[in-house]
Amino acid sequence: MPVELFHQGGNLRLMFSDLQQSHPEAVQANQFLIVNGDTGAIIDPGGNLAYNDLYVGMMRHFPPQHLSAILASHADPDIIASLDRWMTSTAAPVYISSIWERFIPHFCKPGKTEGRVIGIPDRGMRIRIGRGELVALPAHFLHAEGNFQFWDEASGILFSGDLGASIGGNARVPVTHLAGHIERMEPFHRRFMVSQKILRLWAQMVRTLPIRMIVPQHGAPLAGAAVQEFIDWAQDLSCGVDLMNASHYSVPH
Fold first, then answer.
1. How far from chain centre, in Å, is Cα 166?
2. Which domain of life, per UniProt (predicted)?
């Protein structure tokens, strides 16, 4: 069963958090369905383990031919490895960083992506979904070189990709205070985020938005006080290249 993140009128935001639970060898990942009236979008549709249930979940709200967009924060397999099947079952375009635009066809059979891949410029863009829109926000190097988060003004949700991700715990239950949750986030962020400089630039950008919830691609959403607590924590985090030294670049014995 999906988690309802927001529901107002014809606007519905759903998170699918357990579509790969029968495959414990695979990393847990969240997929998101945006419903705006009789159309919508999928954010980070995931791999083949998630496809069937996500497709059925979408059909409960609108037919496949009404899907407006497939949005990918970056090009990792747990983000978009199921693309070949989505290209077959819908006519929706896929939006991804222009850096990854020419890599995307490698996920699909020849010809399936022709004319259907829209490269998001580095500065980001606004993407129309029915009567609403999503904003692709620059989140480069958090953790991919070309990386975007998706801001949904209607719901106040920032779909944050790998930033804010946690390992373990219950992905279905929002975290409202960061204390006690940091231990599930810190190892991942120190290894996968590139530097404190980039995190500070990100924090400066998102502080301008009225964020009600930060929803990552792994683990539990952040809500309430945890939103600002996470922004404060992230902007001061040493990570990635900040932690590298000569010992990390030595020839193995």
1. 13
2. Bacteria
pLDDT tens-digit map of 25-68: 778 899 999 999 999 999 999 998 889 999 999 999 999 999 99
Q: Which residue has the tokens 């639970």?
A: 21
pLDDT 10s digits, 145-166: 999 999 999 999 999 999 999 9
Full DSSP string of 60-80: TTS-GGGEEEEE-SS--HHHH
* Structural domains of the chain, with CATH: 3-242 (3.60.15.10)
**6: Cα separation from own chain's centroid:** 17
Based on its alpha-carbon atoms, the radius of gyration of the chain, rounded to whole angstroms, reads: 18
Edge-to-edge strands, sheet with 132-138: 125-129, 132-138, 148-152, 157-161, 213-216, 222-223
